[in-house]
Amino acid sequence: MFERRPTRQIRVGNDKTGVVLIGGGLEGTTPAPVSVQTMTAGYTYEIDKCVTEINRLAAAGADVVRVAVPERKDTEALAEILNQTSVPIVADVHFHFKRALEAVEAGVHKIRLNPGNIQDRDQVNAVIDACKDAGIPIRVGVNEGSIIERKDKEQRKQELGKFFEKGNIGGKNAMLLGLIIAKLEEYMDIFYERDFRDVAISCKSMDAAFTVAAYKEVSKRFDEPLHLGVTHAGPKETGAIRSIAALAGLLTQGVGDTVRISYANDPVYEVEDGLELMYSLGLREREGVELIACPTCGRIQVDLFTLVQEVRQKLADAITAPIKVAVMGCVVNGPGEAEGADVAVFAGNKRGIIYVQGERVANVPEHEILDRLLEECTIFQRKVLAGEAKLGEKVVEIVPPDPIGELGSGIDKIASGNVEKATGLTINKT
Question: Are 326 and 292 in contact (CB under 8 A)?
Fold first, then answer.
């Protein structure tokens, strides 16, 4: 749907975990789907807890999982963690390059280095050589919080800020962008001189608008794949908006090869929302149900809030095929929005009418809607998997009933003999 920016391609993982390709389009490679990453929230040295969390994140759909290794006891735990997990693992290294060397020795699948914290050229060279020998990539991850120059800020502002227009990103941010670009160029030169090109780049900020500006600038200057993210995005309630505001804009411009949505919350939500972003933009083939529901209003005649959440939970556990399911609460928007659905229910007057690819299959009271909808989705999925039905195969036109009819709100107000009572929905197949 969106033309991807061509990049070099890196490989993360092995035969045991499966290989995740990131980026592509240069040197004869095909662009890989945008992958979704996350990071564990617990301590890496607590092996059992860490393994449980990694496996839970992998089950949620994470393509790659990152773990923190701030201390020797964390890298000592890696070998056993890797033995019990089956998803590519990235070691997040800050401050001490020896943690990277220890992680490589333990068999980790990728290293993350922060130019703001590990700057000594000999130390960086040691990590590069270890990764080259092991055949694993490195992410050069620049964060706003660790890149800001704390010495002679005015001089840096004069030297670097002048290279960027003070338009959308402003004076202070122009200086910050200059620092990020300068630091990345200096750091990447070490990798190029070492003839090491298995590198991904990130340049995260807590500011969504600045994140867009920074990644667009980086994408013009480097051909490495880009790891997108908004750092310190906050709780899920606000972090979702902050993250999607930046990431969706970049992805629709073809910028970005792997993403991590960051929340101060259970990282499973990061995976779920990252995948939904990919599905919504058509950058990944959907796995599992696509659930759509109408906006609520004063026309609703069932408990739609509860119904939608219950449907979501039930179908998430039972349905793996990418079935499109519509849950509509009235006859105004329901018919039009449900036309493209494989399974649809729209409700009114405490009842629900259920359709499977345009065929009316049930008219049930409100308390039976959930179970019947799950039953019809399960039957339809079985047919799809058996080759007896195809997703989105039928094209139907759903004509809504009279609003005072079967699902309407004015059935009790029909004047006897004056208004013909509607009996249901008319389905015109095309």
Answer: yes
Beta carbons of 348 and 332 less than 8 angstroms apart: no
Q: For residue 196, give both structure tokens.
A: 């090491």
Helix, strand, coil percentages (3-state) for the chain, rounded to 5, are 40, 20, 40
* Single pTM value for the model: 0.83
Strand partners, 138: 111, 199
Q: Which pLDDT score is estimated for 255?
A: 97
d(C-alpha 91, C-alpha 228), whole Å: 17
What domains are there in the chain, each with its CATH number?
9-280 (3.20.20.20), 290-429 (3.30.413.10)
First to last CA, the chain: 27
Residue-wise pLDDT for 290-302, tens only, equals: 988 877 666 565 6
Q: Say if CB 179 and CB 159 are below 8 A apart.
A: no
Could you tell me the sign of the dihedral formed by the alpha carbons of 306, 312, 314, 317, in that order? negative
pLDDT of residue 317: 81
**CB 344 within 8 Å of CB 328:** yes
Model pLDDT for residues 186-209, shown as the tens digit of each residue: 889 999 999 999 999 999 888 899
Give the amino acid at 33: P
- Which pLDDT tens digit goes with each residue over 85-135? 999 999 999 878 999 999 999 999 999 998 867 778 899 999 999 999 999
43 token code pair: 């301590």
Q: Most confidently modeled of 66-75, 158-167, 304-313?
A: 66-75
Longest CA pairwise span in the chain (Å): 93
Beta strands in 86-185 (DSSP E): 89-92, 110-113, 138-143
In the beta sheet, which residues pair with residue 142?
203
Show the DSSP H helices in 350-415 as ranges: 369-385
How many separate helices (H) and strands (E) can be counted in the chain?
A: 13, 17
Give the integer Cα–Cα distance in Å for 244 and 249: 8
